[in-house]
Design goal:
Length: 180
């Protein structure tokens, strides 16, 4: 009888431990200085280590998934957004910082469209190798009138099936409220 109680206790403890480690499916919501709102995966934590000019940085080092939102300056020149997008995407494709060269880049998606919120979006999805790690990058420029934000999410390529859908959901959730 004593062995049965110990066995039952171990099973109960195991089940509780298993379910307590699961993140809820409901995304977290954040308002960034009254300028932008974003829903993000509950397993991500805020950080300031990813980009010096990010309005928000999110990461989960255990799951190897990262996301940033960076306000971009606005210029009323015709073609400015296209020029900025080309510059940012070329920077991403041709990172040349000493040991941090992105190699073997393959563009998986390079498109522009108007999303369901009426924002103009330029979207780049690419894969490459950085320091012997295969990575997947999803970068977007999101424009509402004369307000412009860049979003970037990345993860290890072998975890694409796990985390890309969350990165894309964060991109879709972006709501621009006002100027940065």
């Amino acid at each position: 009888m004593k062995q049965f109680k110990i066995f039952l206790g171990l099973i109960t403890f195991s089940v509780l431990a298993l379910f307590s480690c699961k993140y809820p499916d409901i995304p977290k919501h954040i308002d960034i200085r009254g300028k932008l709102q974003l829903d993000y995966a509950p397993y991500l934590n805020k950080t300031e280590d990813l980009h010096p000019h990010a309005a928000i940085g999110l990461q989960n080092k255990y799951r190897d998934v990262y996301y940033i939102v960076v306000p971009q300056p606005w210029k009323s020149d015709s073609g400015y957004v296209k020029h900025l997008y080309d510059s940012l995407s070329n920077d991403l494709k041709n990172v040349t910082k000493a040991e941090q060269a992105l190699k073997e880049t393959v563009v998986l998606r390079d498109t522009s469209y108007t999303n369901e919120k009426g924002y103009f979006v330029q979207d780049l999805l690419l894969k490459g190798v950085l320091k012997d790690e295969k990575l997947l990058f999803d970068m977007q420029l999101i424009q509402k009138d004369d307000i412009l934000f860049q979003t970037s999410g990345w993860c290890f390529l072998n975890k694409k099936d796990l985390w890309l859908k969350d990165i894309e959901a964060m991109n879709r959730s972006v709501t621009i409220l006002g100027k940065e």
